[in-house]
Amino acid sequence: MTRFRRSIVLAGLVLTLLLLGTSCWNAVELDRRALVMGVGIDKAKEEGKIALTVQIVKPGQLPTPRRAPGPGPPVWVVTSTGYTVFDAVRNFVLQSGRKLFWAHMVVIVISEEVAREGLAPVLDFFDRDAEPRRLSKVIIAKGIAAKEIMKGQHELETIPAAAIRDLVEGFTSVSTAVSVNLNEFLKRMSAGGVEPVAARIEVVAAEEREKAEEKALQSGDDGGMAEDPRLKAPPRFRVTGAAVFKGDRLAGWLNRPETRGYLWTQGKVVSGIVVLKCPQNEKETIGIELIRSEGEIKPRVQEGRVVAEVKVKAEAHVGDVLCPLDLTKPETLRLLEKRMNTVIENEVRAAFRKAQEGLRADIFGVGAALHRSSPGQWKKLKDRWDEVFPEVQVEIKADAKIRRVNLVLKPAQPK
Amino acid sequence: MNNTSSVRLSGRQAMWLVVTTILATTLIFLPAWVAAEAKQDAWLSVLLSMVVGVVTAWLVSTLGRRFPDLTIVQYGERILGRVLGKVVGLVYAAFFLHINTVIVREFGELLLTGFMPETPLVVFIGTIIVVAAYGAWAGPEVLARVNDFILPVILFLLGVSLFLLVNQANLAALLPLAEEPAGIVRGALASAVFFSEVIILAMLIPSLNLRSEAARAGVLGVLVAGFSLMAVTVFATMVFGGERVANLTFPYLALTRIVSVRGVVERVEFLALGIWVLGGFVKISVFYYAAALASSQWLGLREYRSTVVPIGLAIGFLSVIQFENIDQISSFLTTAALFAYLPVTLGLPALLLILATLRGLKGGSGTAPGPRGADKEVSP
Questions:
Q1: What is the CATH number of the domain that holds B276?
Q2: What Å distances lie between residue B108 and A256, A362, B245, CA to CA?
Q3: Domain that holds residue B126
Q4: From B114, B116, B243, residue closest to A26, measured CB to CB
């Protein structure tokens, strides 16, 4: 080959690669993207349709170090309906003019009504599509439409969806709520011998609001409705407790102590406050701060019955003391530890009672643990695990250690 | 220094080429296909199916020691005679071509599904074939040198991506161990095809400067690739659970997408993309070279380069038309390929080795330069 021909071929190759190397085929510039931060899933009014409500970021309204935030809320909340989730997702284009971009979505809020009918159909899009991440939190809205949650605002965080994510992740400092992402939810849903849980979100002071609405309706005066301060304030939310699923259907809820009982068994209690009664005076209390915990479920089959041994280890500090208690004596701490064990055992027992009797859903993974430790036994039981689980006998062993009393030995007392 | 006409690879380079060839595209799919059969024991299946690779490597390198200057197409003809030998030669030429059509299609499918859903498949396939054609044209020595750079990068990216998942990995997900032996064997069969890719040694051995290192290169290559794949499988199981891995199209891509270290280190799927494109290039080029060499030797051409262009067109065309969708690829590779590929990679070499031993055949082509002279000249 002559040098000339060589260089022609080479130039052609380089040019082709340059053009293809940019991979501009479906490039969308950042200012043409519609970034979805959160999605709420409800049933639409129309039979058989799904309503999605999304929070889309308005970049111009976000504060930056160089610029004050623009007027108005930093997100655009918009609702679309469709026969499937993806149908509804595409229908957003009719209102937004651009395709939504899902890679930054942090929360998926699902109304109680949809959750009771099963989550598998509504979650498939978020699992299948290449844009959404499986790290998004799965949250169930109790007693309120997911749309309302999406409309909410937060005083500290500019983007409401990010605030909801923070609320969910904040569970670690109280351990009375759960944080579950899409991957964890789907993993538990498709595994045998364990049922999924999800975070629960509800409106604070919902009753107040309802009362005000009722009053406004009764008076029949629209102007009055707008003026009532209770209605003007955007709804505030809190994330507490947990939503319990059986398969992909919402079975019920755990309250706060039950949720911590559940978390103890999973070794997921990160921190939190345990309130104990004072030894001398039952009316006064002591706050103990948890700093570490471990939990383990060891099931075994004994005389044809499944026995689940739950072992919980916890370490704690004394957080505040509301009675004159002498913490310099070792037996005082031992007494507190004993009381703390009782609290832990009660919480775990409460969680099991709710799961076994009320919801009949093995959220603890007793079945999965049995599968791991004795696959032979599990094989015999797995097909009728739904009937076996409520009959599982639970043995709880709590072992709490109070390591430190913080900066004060005896509380200051008035003389 | 060597003159340019005699291509020489060191034993280590051959081993690295084997590693990249097995690892590159396989790691994206493998855990799902194995977990579909073996659930949480998928990694045991991978361990088991390495045996297939080791046996193939042993067969091919033993044959290579008997016929150090010949490829399997050439010594097939020596052993079986002209007519049968030509049939076997055609089988290998077709095999290398066909397996490459599958790899090229996989390559395009991942980029399409995972990253650029609106780009036509033909664009990815066309681009990689043009680049791989250059690689095949340049020959094994150049590919080996490129791979000397690429493989460390691949292993580094792989290691980093798995390390970032430690916080989400649940060791208990691997229990119970060896629950269903039949499932483990079925899983091993599903991944056997990938390890049998070490068959490319049958085309590379004449390019080695020390033919005696072929066995080591093959076996070590299979083991390094195998243990890397096992690590990916273990992590996929620990993060997603045995049941769910089986339902994921690209488990390794899913792994990189779920990385989250304190909400700071996230969205690292570029690691998967890097491995995929770098490794895919080497893998496709190696098989491309093997296909071009096999077909030119079968046709009795003096230069393998004259077949590079037609082979490329055939790969591109076939890879687009032979599968209608991605499910056909996975069902082909886990079922039909067992019957289509394994006889070629395992059965035929075994048969050739038995016949060669019985008939006491050995030796080079007579015209090609002997290996001994070259040995002294180039050593790594």
A1: 1.20.1740.10
A2: 50, 42, 22
A3: 11-363
A4: B116
